[in-house]
Amino acid sequence: MKFDSKVIYKPRSQPALQRGFFSVVTFAFWMAYAYLWLPLLTLFLWLLGVRTAVFELYLREHQVEPFLLISLPMLALASAVILIAWAEYNRYRFRDKDRRGAHANVDRQDIARAFGSSDEIARSLVASKVAVLRMDDSAAPVGVSTL
């Protein structure tokens, strides 16, 4: 297969101005898409009684409850601090620890048995990094060509 630069997208090779423009355009279209979902979201929230909750909490007295103005941002800030602290703790705890082990090498007999092929085909597959496997009509390997 021939390399096609249109298929493989490398954003870091684009100029920064072009990347920025595409990011702004993408964000604008996502916002337009989200705006189209607002009527359905409003209906869902109305069915859950959120309008009633807003009326009871904020609009009945024609004023906003000062406790809510202080407590809700503080709760959001506390949640953010706890989540960031937990993420940093895990990053510190698992830093420089590679828990992934190396895979055992597979010998030629296992490869030949798994493919249902001869030892010669398995030897060619082990010796090459890139190979094209030719199959017969019953999907059994009959040959291999290395690139």
**Spatial order of the strands forming the largest sheet:** 1-2
Strand share of the residues? 5-15%
**What does the oligomeric state look like here?**
single chain
Largest sheet: 2 strands, antiparallel
> Can you tell me the number of structural domains?
2
State the total count of DSSP E strands. Answer: 2
What order do the helices and strands follow? HHHHHHEE
Task: Give the helix/strand class.
Answer: mainly alpha
Which term fits the overall shape? elongated
Give start-end ranges of low-pLDDT stretches: none
Short description:
Pfam families: PgaD. The chain is built from 6 helices and 2 strands. With 147 residues, the protein is mostly helical.
Structure description:
The mean pLDDT is 83. This protein is mainly alpha-helical. A two-stranded antiparallel ribbon has the order 1-2. It has six helices and two strands; from the N terminus they run H-H-H-H-H-H-E-E. The protein has two domains: 14-86, no CATH class; 108-146, no CATH class. The chain is elongated and about 85 Å long. The longest helix is centred in the middle third of the chain and has 29 residues, at 66-94.
Question: Top keywords for this entry?
Answer:
147 residues, mainly alpha, 2 domains, two-stranded antiparallel sheet, 6 helices, 2 strands, elongated
Secondary structure blueprint with pairings:
Blueprint lengths: L15 H21 L1 H11 L1 H10 L6 H29 L13 H8 L3 H9 L3 E5 L5 E6 L1
Helix pairs in contact: 5-6
